[in-house]
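On clarity, I found the account of how folds are encoded harder to follow than it need be. Since the whole study asks how a given chain folds, the encoding of that fold should be made plain. The format is easy to grasp once an entry is in front of the reader. For illustration, here is how one protein appears when written out as sequence plus structure tokens.
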Amino acid sequence: MAEIKQFPSQVLAQGTISLRPFRDSDASSVVIAGSDTETQKWLPLPMPYTLDDAKRFINEIAMETQVAGIGVVFAIEHKNVFVGCIDVKRAEWLNGNCEIGYWMMPEHRGRGFMTQALDLLSRWVLLEQGFSRVEVRVAAENHSSQRVAEKVGFIREGIARRAGRVHGGRVDLIINSRVFDDL
């Protein structure tokens, strides 16, 4: 049986942001972000989003994802303040492919933190973890998230029709990629 590969637990830093493992003390911020109207619009999170949901995300989902080798979840900090979340998911170690997803605290949107975080994490995955392709899949109407991927240099490849699910139903997803050769 093949050994399960896992992403290391570590802190990544670039510019004014750092990516670190989640802490229990992040739970109240996760509730705020998970309850935000814009976050709820694009992510199929529980509604209402409770403190128990946040604790389950931090202590179970994030940990299980890493232990299973299918991803890793990071809290994003700016000057020691929690500003959002970014994660690697659907990691296929053998094929060298994965996806990155992200969300921001409402009061920190539009300040460039997610652009820095996506650049940092995608470079780390491609240069240090040995992946050859990273995808960002964005709901076609989520223009803010699409701009983040574009600013980092992800290339729009096409649309996966009705491939995403949000509270309002099925949505088309724009497929964006960054490959090793893009660096």
The helical segments are 27-35, 37-42, 51-67, 113-128, 143-152. The domain at 12-135 is CATH 3.40.630.30 (Aminopeptidase). The beta strands are 12-14, 17-20, 72-78, 81-92, 97-104, 133-139, 155-166, 169-179.
